[in-house]
Amino acid sequence: MPLSRLSLEHFRNITAAELELSPRFNLIVGANGSGKTSLLEAIYYLGRVRSFRTARPKHLIQDGQTWFRLVGRITGADNAEQTLGIERGPQGQTLRLAGRPVRQLADLVRTLPIQLLHSDSHLILEGGPRYRRRYLDWGVFHVEHGYHATWQRYAKALKQRNAALRTSRNPRDVAAWSPALVQAAETLHSLRSEYIAMLLPYVQGNLAALVDLPGLEFHYQPGWPEDTGLETALAERYATDLKRGFTQVGPHRADLQPLIDGVPAIERVSRGQQKQLVTALLLAQAELLMEKSRRPCLFLIDDLPAELDHGHRERVLERLLALQSQVYVTTTDANAIPVVAGDSGKRFHVEQGRIAQTG
Ligand SMILES: Nc1ncnc2c1ncn2[C@@H]1O[C@H](COP(=O)(O)OP(=O)(O)OP(=O)(O)O)[C@@H](O)[C@H]1O
């Protein structure tokens, strides 16, 4: 469901803004340092309840202020409207959905699926497994019901087992958590495996449209040696787990690695191909979400010209619009953005934190 309206107060360098958004294509133009990324960050925060630039939300509050507020209105295909809001101040954060306080963060996140392409997106390839797990888990969360609850069960069992490893010298205290841990882990593994099997054809389709990488394949590693199984892997690592004070195997160590001829793809691709590959991965998730749940996602692209060459910009935007995604693109140069949305797009100009609709 697209955002039809967004209001921001005291967010980064944006003092106050009220925006009526296009359900299709929103172009955000402005000079360096004007506030374009801050606007994308606000949308992202509303949908994911975290920033892609800082782990400390207090930095999002405008200098000299003590709180920020974001309110979005989403409009469904049947024109049904829903409001979601986040306010952060000295007393912490309050989340509201349809006028009511939200207790489970996941409820808000489920309401507004968001994908982001920006200068750090290459970390999916170049960074450690946690970046690829985050990529994978976004998709599984939105597509597989029950994933979130299982993940919570797993995280609880893992935390207790780790606490027992650190505080108790009795192997039985540690082993007591194994059945819950293993059961949740196996469910997570099977949900992730099912999701990957569904996702890969979409990845291949997008790769075919965007980049030619012969020999590319994806290797999923569940977080423990598959030939032994998790229970045995836990038993085998008990002594080193005890020494280190944490559990070394489990779905929290999973990875989904793109490989070319058996080596990480990152070793074999150019910088431009890296960006095309990452874009294909993100598009594939948006496409699968649409196919599986009939839910379009918001797609944010920060500084599109810096990410892709002209031909790829056009292809990516066309694919996104065909998917009915609501697209947000920032740029310093409007001429560098292909005209794809016709009359259904809107243009905003940002200058020193002030946002004006210009088309
Ligand atoms: N908490 C804050 N309060 C006020 N201003 C802030 C805050 N955090 C960042 N800024 C400022 O907001 C401005 C806008 O930053 P932003 O990254 O959104 O710009 P941008 O238009 O995306 O720039 P670029 O094109 O260079 O990427 C910067 O000058 C930054 O210093």
TrEMBL record:
InterPro entries: DNA-binding_RecF, DNA-binding_RecF_CS, P-loop_NTPase, RecF/RecN/SMC_N, RecF_2
PROSITE patterns in the cross-refs: RECF_1, RECF_2
Any one GO molecular function term: single-stranded DNA binding
Keywords for the protein's UniProt record, in alphabetical order: ATP-binding, Cytoplasm, DNA damage, DNA repair, DNA replication, DNA-binding, Nucleotide-binding, SOS response
Subcellular location: Cytoplasm
Keyword ATP-binding recorded: yes
GO BP of this protein: DNA replication; DNA synthesis involved in DNA repair; double-strand break repair; SOS response
GO cellular component, as recorded: cytoplasm
RecF/RecN/SMC N-terminal domain sequence ranges: 3-337
Family statement drawn from the similarity comment of this UniProt entry: Belongs to the RecF family.
Function according to Swiss-Prot or TrEMBL: The RecF protein is involved in DNA metabolism; it is required for DNA replication and normal SOS inducibility. RecF binds preferentially to single-stranded, linear DNA. It also seems to bind ATP.
UniProt name for this protein: DNA replication and repair protein RecF
Taxonomy of the source species: Bacteria, Pseudomonadati, Pseudomonadota, Gammaproteobacteria, Thiohalobacterales
